[in-house]
Each structure stands twice: as C-alpha cells, then as structure tokens.
Amino acid sequence: MSRPKLIAGNWKMYKNVAETADFLAKVEGFQGAELLLFAQSALLSLFANSKLAFGPQNIYWEEKGAFTGELSPKLAKELGASYALAGHSERRQFFGETHHSAAKRALAAHAFGMTAVFCVGERLEERDAGQTMNVIRAQCAPLFEMSPQAPAGFCFAYEPVWAIGTGRTATSAQAEEVQVALRAEIAKHWGETAAQNTRILYGGSVKPDNAKELMSCPNVDGVLVGGASLEAESFLAIARAAKG
Ligand code: PGA
User: Fold this and answer.
1) Which DSSP symbol is given to 166?
2) Ligand 1: residue whose CA is nearest its atom 3
3) Residue 211, ligand 1, Cβ within 6 A
4) How far apart are CA 237 and CA 244, in angstroms?
5) 227 lines ligand 1 (CB under 6 A)
6) Active site residue 88
7) Does residue 172 contact residue 216 with C-beta atoms inside 8 Å?
C-alpha cells in the first residue's frame, strides 16, 4: 500500500497574476508533503518554472475541435499540468456537469498523461435521508463503467457539498466512514490492490486547525482545500499537518 498524503488547493476563480506569483514564491521551498494546486486555466503557464504540481479545475475530453470555452487536455499537459480536477460540486451545480461528463473529463486526464482528482459527495438533504453512499455510488457508476481498470494514480476526493465553503467540516469520523465505504466500492470495481493504492482526499472547510485530525484517519490520504489554500501561510500550515 502506497498512499503518501496529497495536499491539494482549489483556488476556484479567485487569484490573479500577481497573487499567483506571490503565492508561488512563498511555497516554493516547502518540503515534506506533496503539494498540488488547481488554478484557473489562464494562470497555468505561470506555474511553468515552479516545482509545484498543478492542474486545471476542468478539462474537456477531446484533444481539439469546435468546443468554445473548453480547455484541451493536450494543451493543459503541454503547459505542464500533471493533474486535473473533475466533477467538482460547483461544476455539477452551476455548469450542468453530469456523472457521465465528469467521468469523461477525469479519464481524459489519464489519456493525456495527467492524473485525475475526481470529486464526489452528497448534499445535506441526501445525507439526512441516509442516501450518502447511494449518491456516491451513482456519481462513480459511469466512471467504473467506462474504465473497468484503475487508471494509474487516479485520485478521488470526498467532498460533502454541505461542508464546502460553509465552515462546517465533516467530523473525522464522518469522513473516515464514507472514505472506507468508497474504498470498498473502488475495490468492487477495480480490485482490492488498486483500491488500497488509490488516494482518497477529503475536502470541505479544511483549515489548519482541523487538517491534522482529518488526516490522522487511515483512509484520508490528503485534503482538497478551497478557501484556506488562498493564503500561502494557511496552505503550508495544512501541509505541515500532513506530517503528523
Ligand atoms: P472549501 O472548498 O475548503 O472552501 O470548503 C473546498 C472545495 O471546494 O474543494
């Protein structure tokens, strides 16, 4: 089993050019945990000279064509991206992302030499109705159908929608419970070995003061951080928490 902790930041639509340069200068020398940043497409080229892993928040599945407004996975790779985010709940909520299209984007990352971080998670009313794992199974179904084998390095992120940007984090017990069940679901489709090697991040109001407890769970293999990834200081504090 090899699941080194991954500390991923999702900058959403926040940073500009100067802020990106400033952030990169501050985190450049950090060692001790694997860092990754998901930035707006227009910022990706600014990462070219940094040692940080980075990627877009969304990619299309075709290499090129008449798809106005989309980002080619080939271009993302050419700009140096090594990861791509897929299926974030904001894409699902505001931009019509479906389980099927999210899976296609995630698999395109692998087809073009990148690694996907595939987001799943339930809404509050779904949790309250005891539907959490049914929702997550449905979100993953097209992915397992299109890819009967595990793409090397593929990552999941469990992000309960009710915890994103709300300040209301899942407890470590809630995160661990879902992540154990998700790993079992991965094992069912991709086999036990692949499941044991697949990293599952937790995301949703991760902050410096809760990161350590979340990452002490055996099935929380890192975090996907929104708000607290915008300041280098808090992002690095979370990364330090990965060391235990
Ligand atoms: P948050 O966002 O950390 O601000 O809750 C997480 C995410 O959207 O990935």
Assistant:
1) S
2) 226
3) no
4) 12
5) yes
6) yes
7) yes
CA distance 8 to 19: 18
**Which residues on adjacent β-strands are paired with residue 155?**
117, 199
135-182-81 Cα angle (round to 5): 95
Phi and psi at residue 233, in whole multiples of 5°?
-60, -45
Using an 8 Å Cβ cutoff, are 6 and 199 in contact?
yes
Domains and CATH numbers, the chain: 6-241 (3.20.20.70)
Q: Helix, strand, coil proportions of the chain in percent (round to 5)? A: 45, 15, 40
What are the tens digits of pLDDT across the range 116-169? 999 999 999 999 999 999 999 999 999 999 999 999 999 999 999 999 999 889
> Cα 198 vs. chain centroid, distance in angstroms?
13
208-236 residue pLDDT tens: 999 999 999 999 999 999 999 999 999 99
- pLDDT digit string, tens, across residues 17-38: 999 999 999 998 898 899 999 9
Helix (DSSP H) and strand (DSSP E) numbers for the chain: 10, 8
Task: Determine whether 99 is an active site residue.
Answer: no
